User: Fold these one by one.
Assistant:
Number 1:
Amino acid sequence: MAIPTKILLEIVTPDRALIREEVDEIQLPGSEGYLGVLPGHTPLLTTLMVGELWYRVGAEKHFLSIAGGFVEVLPDRVTVLADLAERAQDIDIARAEAAKRRAEERLAKPSSDLDFERARIAMMKSLIRLQVASRARTRV
Ligand code: ATP
């Protein structure tokens, strides 16, 4: 069987279909660490953590923030079922900064383990959103 030269990338959340595009390369925030995917990758299924996802089409990289979910990798197709996902250009920076400040205050004086864990996740999501928002579409 011929080795595929492109990957059909689909990114969906429970609310909406965000991306359906033929791409050349993807990096995903897998729960075991960041995962690079090129056409012809070995099939795998894994969970996602809070992190940055990028995909490359030709010389252009596109960035999204992701918070949890699953990904199925096949040699010519990658399907991301994300709990939350935002494209870099759709991120509201002021909102992410406000969420970061709230999380910092809660982490400074947690009243229970649950508060601490929720604040830790809110902090990670806000930091990733700010990181992703700062990356305009870049040429590689
Ligand atoms: P906030 O505390 O600012 O409401 P949150 O972390 O509680 O943020 P989430 O539960 O992570 O919010 O997300 C709720 C919805 O809002 C999702 O659809 C998510 O994509 C969107 N969202 C959250 N923060 C941002 C942001 N800074 N820019 C764009 N969309 C965002």
Note: DSSP finds two helices and nine strands in the chain.
Number 2:
Amino acid sequence: MKEIILAKYGEIALKGLNKRNFESILMKNIKSSLREYGDFEFSNAQSTVYIVPKSEEIDLAEVSDSVGKIFGIASYCRACVCEKDFNDISEKSVEYLRNILESAGSFRVTAKRADKSFCMKSPEICTEMGGVILEKFPHLSVNLKNPEVTVTVEIRDTNAYVHAENIKGAGGLPVGSGGKALLLLSGGIDSPVAGCMMAKRGVRITAVHYVSPPYTSDRARLKVEELCQKMTDYCGYIDFYCVPFTKIQEAIKDNCPERFFTVIMRRIMMIIAQKIAERSLSKALITGESMGQVASQTLEAIVCTDSVCKIPVLRPCIAMDKSEIVELARKYGTFDISIQPYEDCCTVFTPKHPTVKPSLSDVEDAQGQFDFSTLVQEAVENTECKTFRPCE
Ligand code: ATP
Ligand code: MG
């Protein structure tokens, strides 16, 4: 029996004049996400993308999982392909839906007739099909208002399709429809989630990571690269920049008052990030900060980091509890990598008593005791870039 996947888009369907643009980005993303599984034919009509495998070898269960990770798709299902002939439709449906119908208590049938020349009208299809199903599965009852299973019959140009499941998609908007932003990606739980949340709203993610060898190990960097690779399941390709940060951290340690180490370090991270953003054509920065989580994430500390930023800093986790962030980290598949215990440069030279409520002028004075511009320049010049792609 031939099977395809129908993917319905949600919010894009509401876009007016821009709809075409969103649609074409979504199609491109679907194609690149599914390339690894084989050849498909794609078409779209009425806010639905038809994903038709060209060979029987293709594992639709895997494809279906992958479709569930594409932002811009509100719901999707696998469907059985039938000839445009009621006998064929009813025979195949009974076979195709056997497991679902056997374990259900109630059902209803809906019909969509895009091909108005089909010999039966929608209500007639529903009645006849309902009759066939009741005959084969006499334990079922019809429930029009709140059925356990809705059997949908679609009559389209070349074929008819039958399906009964409806799986919730990743939602949001297609990645790339909302410009590009640079994610400050640590090895922690929060920043990968922040990146995925912004990707959900259509933002293409570029990532920057700061390393301080030998205080941070190669293994710690590899962990972040692994996170970045994992994020491509949802975010698509990610350009990843790795910044050598050791000399800057040592200079902070040697020249600035200890209680301001963290906030000065974060300001310099932001200064470098903006230079990388310019280079990568990113319009904003993204961090995984959550209000009050640690000393550097109080409102006062955020005032100090933001004051060096000329582009917007997006903080999608800012109002989330840790447990809510963890839930999303599990959903996006990053949690298990994030909890591997490797050091981050943020934990190098951590002051024993960091200032929880730093004043901006004190921080500026403290940072002013050393001219970081040459070191910043050098760090940016020695930044390495590589690209992570889905399915590598
Ligand atoms: P996360 O779980 O994302 O590591 P966190 O709660 O540990 O966050 P911090 O260590 O204070 O918080 O870092 C705050 C934010 O700064 C992170 O969410 C991330 O965006 C950025 N950040 C921290 N360390 C690095 C790093 N080594 N490279 C790039 N960005 C970093
Ligand atoms: Mg961290």
Note: Residues 186, 188, 344, 346 surround magnesium ion (ligand 2) (CB under 6 Å).
